[in-house]
Write a structure and sequence with these properties.
The complex is a heterodimer of chains A (312) and B (373). Chain A has 312 residues and is an all-alpha fold. Chain A folds into 2 domains: 77 residues, no CATH class; 200 residues, MetI-like fold (Orthogonal Bundle), CATH 1.10.3720. Chain A has 12 helices and no strands. In chain A, helix 7 packs across helix 8. Chain B has 373 residues and is an all-alpha fold. In chain B, strands 1-2 form a two-stranded antiparallel ribbon. The longest helix of chain B is centred in the C-terminal third of the chain and has 37 residues. The chains are: A mainly alpha (312), B mainly alpha (373). Chains A and B meet through helix 1, helix 2, helix 6, helix 7 and helix 10 of A and helix 4, helix 5, helix 8, helix 9 and helix 12 of B.
């Protein structure tokens, strides 16, 4: 997000855009925060009246007292952004990083499962795409089932897969990564099939006139041509991988990881912790996607191609 | 690659494996401990049939040859199933696996022959794809029964099928509750509001410029994690599930529809303006048709997201029915056949839902280059 914002900032353009992209983003963000605070008023009002009734049933409170107290109420239904930030800061600095009470410990657990599954899924996706592009039989037989495999709500299988892998005494990291992998491979396969087929007939014919072998055709033409497609799908895949890891953690009964923290908070009915887990996972998702974008830029620049316009 | 020669070599290897499986016992009777060679005669018959047909395929280009090859493979595949059913799980011996290995090569070749013979044809695609699907289920059945895999780990397809037939009313009830009350409601509200929001945002370029970068950040958020929050807000009924699905489906539609509405060509828009066309005319005649491929892309993504959302939301607690509830409750009771039966229903309905949207897409965006051949 930040890279996009920076890229969109006025970098000596010939015709400056008015108003700038940064201003638009900030306005929209500001609007969202305002809506959030306003929504917190009615959402937390019920909780507040109950608390006041417990403290002092006889005293009446002024409208102003009630109004602003909804933004600081204990155990809110909709925590305000400053409450979440406060909780985020408290839980990520209040305990040593190796302790289960530290939020960052859980971020680490989830991030590890996500990246492991993501790497495995990307490799599987690329391998399947290479097979599909080169073997006609595989193209006709496998592709429709790959699409069908994604209409299976695979997350439904997560608890069972975990039970099975647990029975085979596989570590929970591998089990979580396996679910991440299942979600990750599909966009990579679809995109890579498109990418590996993207060289046009002229380029292919030119390679043939050089009497290039299938392997050379692949290494020198198909593979480089597919790299932009690969990175586009990797960005989708890593976000999906995080979803997979979190759902896997939800179904292991909340031992560790952001999903586990979310589940524990939901058992306790602790809205603030749930929101903190949710916001933290969103930040993690954005950071992971940004990391892939950064690698994409490096690779594409290294290959000598013009990096894609990062405006979207 | 010299396809013909390599293909013939593969044919020979497959046939050799199938025939050599006659040397070893195919199954061992668990009670007497003696090997059964009953299998031999069956296998030999089918192998001879396949050999004959594969020779015919070389000489004749008639459609009879591939059809006979397929029949031979099907008959050959049926043999171990029948044999295992007779002797019970875990009785498979070495000969059976040699036979399976040989048959694998022949199935692969049959798919290859099929995909070259009926060229560029929808029939070919469906036929080859279904051969692959059937083969997948066949391996599942043969391996789970042959190795006597505990049904706790992976029940054989026949057991799942039996469970589906036995509990069809229960499964239908779960499906009705999850699909019609949660999935369809949430899918409709989420997609519709996402689209309407995109239409509004598109009219104000300032908003769109701010929202598009944010939208791509939002789409990375694991929205499934709001499920427990929605359950606290909306209770355990269908409305909390619908709310989760609404949130999940909103952003893909917003981002896609916005991209679609903005994909209308500037020249074409200017032309429309020069004809004095107002916004409604421009919208319905130009922008909406231009956006439709994008909208359908979002609908396809949303159809799978909606199923996932409903099932995960039900993991957190529901009234005593629904597909997600059935899965988590059956895991608790180690009724793995019920779990798989529910997953099969979910997969089937998910595929049908996806298929319906694809059909609608073909009807409405028939002009798009990706659908023209």
């Amino acid at each position: 997000m930040t890279t996009a914002a920076v890229a969109g900032a006025p970098v000596a353009r010939a015709i400056p855009r008015t108003p700038s992209r940064l201003a638009s983003i900030l306005t929209v963000l500001f609007g969202l925060v305002v809506i959030w605070y306003v929504a917190a008023l009615p959402m937390n009002a019920g909780q507040l009246t109950r608390q006041y009734a417990r403290i002092d049933p006889d005293r009446t409170f002024t409208f102003n007292e009630k109004l602003f107290a909804t933004w600081t109420v204990r155990r809110p239904m909709l925590p305000t952004p400053d409450m979440i930030l406060g909780d985020f800061w408290k839980t990520s600095t209040g305990a040593p990083i190796t302790s289960k009470r530290n939020l960052m410990f859980h971020v680490g657990v989830t991030a590890l499962a996500t990246t492991t599954g993501f790497l495995a899924g990307a490799l599987l996706g690329i391998a399947l795409a290479i097979g599909i592009v080169h073997l006609r039989t595989l193209d006709a037989s496998l592709m429709p089932w790959l699409i069908a495999s994604q209409t299976v709500p695979i997350l439904a299988i997560a608890p069972m897969l975990l039970a099975v892998l647990g029975a085979l005494s596989v570590s929970s990291l591998v089990a979580k990564a396996a679910i991440s992998m299942y979600l990750c491979f599909f966009p990579v396969t679809v995109s890579m099939v498109k990418g590996l087929r993207s060289p046009d007939r002229l380029s292919l014919d030119l390679m043939r006139t050089y009497s290039a072998t299938q392997a050379q055709l692949f290494v020198k033409l198909r593979w480089p041509a597919s790299i932009p497609f690969l990175f586009a799908s990797l960005k989708v895949a890593i976000a999906l991988g995080l979803v997979g890891a979190m759902v896997a953690e939800l179904s292991t009964g909340g031992q560790a990881g952001l999903g586990g923290r979310l589940l524990n908070a939901s058992y306790n009915g602790d809205m603030l912790h749930m929101w903190t887990a949710l916001v933290t996972s969103s930040i993690l998702a954005i950071v992971l996607v940004a990391a892939v974008s950064r690698i994409e830029r490096l690779v594409l620049t290294g290959m000598g191609s013009r990096p894609p316009d990062q405006n979207a | 690659m010299p396809r013909g020669l390599a293909g013939r070599a593969w044919d020979m290897l497959g046939l050799l494996l199938v025939l050599s499986s006659l040397i070893w016992p195919a199954v061992i009777d668990p009670e007497t401990g003696t090997g059964l060679r009953l299998f031999a005669s069956t296998a030999a018959t089918f192998a001879a049939l396949i050999l004959l047909v594969s020779l015919l395929t070389r000489n004749l280009a008639s459609p009879v040859a591939p059809a006979a090859a397929i029949l031979g493979v099907i008959a050959g595949a049926a043999a171990p199933l029948i044999l295992l059913r007779l002797t019970g799980p875990g009785s498979a011996a070495f000969g059976l696996w040699v036979y399976v290995a040989g048959l694998t090569i022949l199935i692969w070749r049959a798919m290859g022959v099929l995909s070259t013979l009926i060229d560029r044809d929808i029939v070919r695609r469906i036929l080859v794809a279904s051969v692959f699907g059937v083969a997948f289920v066949w391996y599942w059945q043969v391996i789970t029964i042959g190795f006597a895999v505990p049904s706790i780990l992976l029940p054989p397809p026949s057991m799942i099928w039996d469970r589906m037939v036995a509990d069809v009313h229960l499964l239908w009830g779960d499906f009705r509750l999850t699909f019609f009350e949660a999935v369809l409601t949430g899918f409709t509200i989420g997609s519709l509001s996402g689209f309407l929001f995109a239409v509004v945002v598109e009219r104000y370029p300032f908003l769109a410029r701010g929202l598009i970068p944010l939208g791509s950040a939002f789409s990375a958020i694991p929205i499934i994690a709001v499920a427990p929050i929605m359950i606290i807000w909306f209770g355990f009924g269908s409305s909390s599930k619908a709310a989760v699905i609404t949130l999940m489906t909103f952003f893909p539609m917003l981002v896609n529809a916005l991209a679609g509405l903005r994909s209308a060509d500037r020249m074409e828009l200017d032309l429309m303006r020069s004809y004095g066309a107002g916004y409604p005319t421009r919208f319905f005649k130009l922008m909406l048709p231009a956006a439709l491929p994008f909208v359908f892309n979002a609908l396809k993504i949303n159809s799978t997201l909606a199923m996932i959302g409903a099932i995960v939301a039900e993991f957190f607690g529901t009234p005593l029915a629904g597909m997600g509830f059935r899965i988590s409750a059956s895991i608790g009771r180690l009724q793995l056949d019920m779990v798989w039966a529910t997953i099969a229903v979910a997969a089937l309905s998910g595929s049908l839902f996806y298929g319906c949207i694809t059909l609608l897409e073909r009807r409405l965006t028939f002009w798009h280059p990706s659908l023209r051949t």
